[in-house]
Specification:
This protein has 268 residues and is of the alpha/beta class. It contains six helices and twelve strands. β1 and β2 form a beta hairpin.
């Protein structure tokens, strides 16, 4: 497929040296509707500049395009741009080039979003537990921003794991939502508290530890079961594998279109 520039950077928000929020605006076309949790492709040509601190591998043809999938973090009702939450992979091919982009710079964005990590199969009366590491929070932000959570009876919790507090993207927004909604709970957890410049008073360890400690049961004042809760997993593959095993010990099963299930995650 021939690739051409069809979008520009509308806004770039640096969260940390290796984390950013990128808002991409279509040029000459309108954004199509999508389901919260879905992803699309971003692309840049090999000859596009990259940040100096990264060393992406060289390709023989400098005019080839590098494409990678990224989940939308923006609301489905946002029609001006699609927002992405991206981590810099220093040895990667695309992210060093994405991080070199400035407001107004051109890139390619595939017009249609796709993917199965959505709320479609979740029963309306079920509670929802979102577990993420790193930029795996992105699809949940799209879901959270697209739904009128405060009006729902269901309980919702987000457990977000990161190396340090500076990597907790969307923290202020989620903390504000927690203060606003009685049924919403946010649990940030960091694994390298010894590197914090200001002492960290929150949870430490890994998201798996939060499950083992029963943190959400305590917040919800009720036991989490496959019958009353849907669990979403997104982030590091090792975390997903371990969480599927831990959840399985409590009777949870991975979702299947034919057989059902209460664990939702997506393999790209």
């Amino acid at each position: 497929m021939e690739t051409e520039y069809n979008a520009v950077v509308g806004q770039k928000i640096n969260i940390s040296p290796a984390l950013m929020i990128l808002r991409v605006v279509p040029v000459g076309w309108e954004l199509s509707s999508f389901k919260p949790g879905q992803f699309t492709m971003l692309a840049l040509p090999t000859h596009a500049p990259h940040v100096p601190e990264a060393e992406p591998p060289e390709r023989e043809d400098p005019n080839t395009w590098i494409r990678r999938p990224y989940s939308a973090s923006s609301s489905k009702d946002q029609k001006k741009y699609i927002e992405f939450y991206i981590r810099l992979v220093y040895s990667g091919e695309l992210t060093p080039r994405l991080f070199a982009l400035k407001t107004g710079d051109k890139l390619y964005m595939f017009p249609k979003l796709r993917g199965m990590l959505t709320l479609d199969a979740v029963e309306k009366d079920k509670n929802i537990l979102f577990i993420a590491t790193g930029t795996g929070l992105a699809p949940y932000m799209s879901m959270i921003r697209s739904e009128t959570l405060c009006r729902n009876k269901q309980k919702i919790a987000v457990i977000h794991g990161a190396l340090n507090s500076g990597d907790l993207g969307f923290r202020a927004e989620l903390e504000h939502l927690e203060r606003l909604c009685d049924n919403f709970f946010y649990v940030p957890v960091i694994s390298h508290q010894d590197r914090e410049k200001i002492p960290w008073s929150g949870k430490t360890g890994f998201v798996q530890d939060m499950w083992n400690e029963g943190i959400v049961d305590d917040l919800w004042h009720s036991e989490i079961t496959p019958e009353n809760t849907a669990v979403f997993l997104c982030g590091h593959p090792k975390m997903i594998t371990q969480m599927v095993e831990l959840l399985g010990e409590s009777g949870f099963k991975s979702y299947d279109r034919k057989k059902g299930g209460s664990i939702f995650y997506e393999d790209w």
